[in-house]
Amino acid sequence: MKPRVISAVCLLLMLWQLSATVAQELPLLPHARVVIVVDNSVFASLKMRLARYIKNVLQTHAVVCIVRPADYYQMKPAEIRAFLKQEYESRRIPLVGAIMVGPIPHALRTTGPRQRLIPCPLYYEDFDAEWVDQDNDGNFEDVITDRRQNITEIWTAWWVPPALDQLTQLRLLRSWIGKLDRYYGGELVGRDQMLWLGGEDVGDDVCQRWAKMLRPGLEPLEQELKIWSRAGQQPGVHHPAEAGGDFIAQELLDALTSQSWLHAHIVAPGDAEGWKWGETGLVTVRPDQDASERVVLLDATAFQRRGPNIVTTVGGGLANFRGDGVKPAYDKSVANQLLFSKYTNTVAFCGAAAPRTAAEDPDYCEKILAALTSDGDSYLAEGYYRMRNGDYARGDERYIFRGLEERVLLGDPFARYPDSVQLAKPKKSAEPQRKPNAP
User: Fold this and answer.
1) Res. 153: pLDDT tops 50
2) Is 266 in contact with 311 (CB distance < 8 Å)?
3) What is the pTM of this model?
């Protein structure tokens, strides 16, 4: 063969190898779009970190995230809603969600004068609903919509740092996006699933139903579901240390910090400050009037890079990122504390914003849990969207998550269980694992 022919063949071979390599590295063409809502005052400092996050999401989920900086902190919720609606109605790639970076102004719902204020992500997710402000105080008393037919257009996810001053908020946002980079790099990915069933109303039948719903998601990973329940009789269930009694808050903290979890689902009452039941609680702020040792202050340093990647929880107000029912107290929010701490592995938190909420029934969470399943093509926000639009009932009300029951998704909307090939060999933890209920 002549030298020129050999050179041409070699060149073609090199080009073929290069094209194969590029094809492996490039993600699929994006099939969905998400806008990142970030204020101009912090965008410049977050730009490079957001670019890495956008790349990770595109490579993992074939979803393109578009940053839309503006002076949102100076806007009213109605203006932001109009902007999101315009984004939804424009461009070829369909808009499926919005990530709200920082304390973006948000709609509030109340039941009357001097009542608790509840953040309403639904306001930014349903562009057709009519919101009622009867006393013109800027807060809504009701939402009017055809719950059966009028589904929401998009989902939202909220990144609200636990601080009130803007400098600290910026520092925490930078650290948070860096945490997400480590999560997508596999550094923070946990193992096994934790189910916590607290409260006197949880019987053995409820425990069995939760276990039946949770276990399938872990089957491709060959990982364990570990259960804490006062009533469950299955092998391996952890019972309260006090025979015949209920769990105390220290037992919940010990369970959460006993290892690095893939997912923790917590069924226990509470509010924005943490889980509270009986005379005990795991909270971000100790009540002044209660010096009981049964109330445990949530100290994120105790996690030492353990704890759950994903927290889903059933209990009133636990995902209220405002941290208070009257004025913003972002630092009091248990969800914000877990997400933004450098000592935890938590990257996503999903729960209720309203004080009174649907409780221990597993059916309410079925769609969220199904979206997390390993070796699937969905993610947490898709499960949140399906739950929001699912046909659930509470009393005479139907489709309760579009008006009656407010839900909030905080942190990374694309969190999910990893594919089985990613966890073929368990990684060694940088921190030793501890036995549950260890002192």
Assistant:
1) yes
2) yes
3) 0.88
Distance of CA 329 to the CA centre of its chain: 19
Q: Do residues 385 and 371 touch, judged by C-beta distance below 8 A?
A: no
C-beta neighbour count of 258 within 10 angstroms: 20
| Residue 27 pLDDT exceeds 90 | no
Alpha-carbon distance of 345 to 305, in angstroms, equals: 6
Lowest mean pLDDT among 11-15, 40-44, 255-259: 11-15
Cα 426 to Cα 433: distance, rounded to the nearest angstrom: 13
pLDDT in tens, 165-174: 999 999 999 9
Residue length of the chain: 439
Decide if 39 contacts 72 (C-beta within 8 A): yes
User: Within its chain, how far is the Cα of 7 from the centroid?
Assistant: 55
Six token digits for residue 294: 């049964």
Distance of CA 13 to the CA centre of its chain: 47
Which DSSP state fits 117? P
Bridge partners for 344 per DSSP? 306
The pLDDT of residue 427 is above 60: no
- Give tens-digit pLDDT for 350-371: 999 887 665 567 888 889 999 9
Tokens found for residue 314: 């059933």
Cα-based distances in Å from 87 to 83, 268, 421 = 6, 38, 37
Q: Are 437 and 251 in contact (CB under 8 A)?
A: yes
Q: Which residues of 104-130 are buried (b: 16+ CB within 10 A; e: fewer)?
A: bbbbbbbeeeeebbbbbbbbbbbbebe
16 has a pLDDT exceeding 50:
no
What is 192-423's CATH topology? Rossmann fold (3.40.50)
Q: What are phi and psi of 263, to 5 degrees?
A: -160, 135
Rounded mean pLDDT, 415-433: 61
- Work out the average pLDDT over 213-238: 83
Which pLDDT belongs to residue 25? 44
- How far apart are alpha carbons 412 and 184 in whole angstroms? 11
Q: How far is CA 49 from the centre of its chain?
A: 20
Distances (CA, A) of 351 to 24, 105, 121, 259, 297: 37, 20, 12, 22, 21
At residue 421, what is the residue type? V
What separation, in Å, do the N-terminal and C-terminal C-alpha atoms of the chain show? 77
Residues 180, 346 contacting (CB under 8 angstroms)? no
Token code pair at residue 245:
């009694």
Cβ atoms within 10 A of the Cβ of 164, count?
Answer: 14
Question: How is residue 102 written in tokens?
Answer: 């920082």
Contact 197, 232 (CB under 8 A): yes
What is the C-alpha to C-alpha distance for residues 100 and 37, in angstroms, rounded to an integer? 5
